[in-house]
Amino acid sequence: MPLSHGDQVTLLKDILNNHQTDCCGSVAECEQLERLVKSLMVNTQVDQNVKNILQEVYQYSQHGVGTADLDQHILSNQENLSNWVSDIGQFS
């Protein structure tokens, strides 16, 4: 059963929030972020402001998949993570 738009946004925010609070994550989570972003980007219900944020999240997740030190990547993006969760919550 596919996830609804609301479920996808909730999952996206949960993963980002976990990265922000735990200061660590997994490559699988970054790959999940990529899949969620791709799905949300083609959804016409998604606000354009959220799509701009999703572009940033996609780049973050791509760098996360390719980095040798994922925890450091997450740590260096703490402010972005906090902002993304907050901003997505305002528009969703």
Structure description:
The radius of gyration is 12 Å and the shape is globular. Helices cover 79% and strands 0% of the residues. It is built from 5 helices and no strands. The protein has 92 residues and is mainly alpha-helical.
> How big is the Rg?
12 Å
Tally of individual domains: 1
Biggest sheet descriptor: none
Helix content: over 70%
One letter per element, helices H and strands E, the order comes to: HHHHH
Shape: globular
**Average predicted confidence as pLDDT:** 94
Q: Roughly what fraction of the amino acids lie in strands?
A: under 5%
Low-confidence stretches: none
Question: How many alpha or pi helices?
Answer: 5
Number of E strands:
0
> Which structural class should the secondary elements be placed in?
mainly alpha
N/C terminus separation: 22 Å
Question: Secondary structure elements and their pairing?
Answer:
Elements: H1 5-22, H2 27-41, H3 48-66, H4 70-76, H5 78-91
Helix pairs in contact: 1-2, 1-5, 2-3, 3-5
Short recap of the structure:
With 92 residues, the chain is mainly alpha-helical. The protein has helices spanning 5-22, 27-41, 48-66, 70-76, 78-91.
Annotation keywords:
92 residues; mainly alpha; 5 helices; single chain; 0% strand
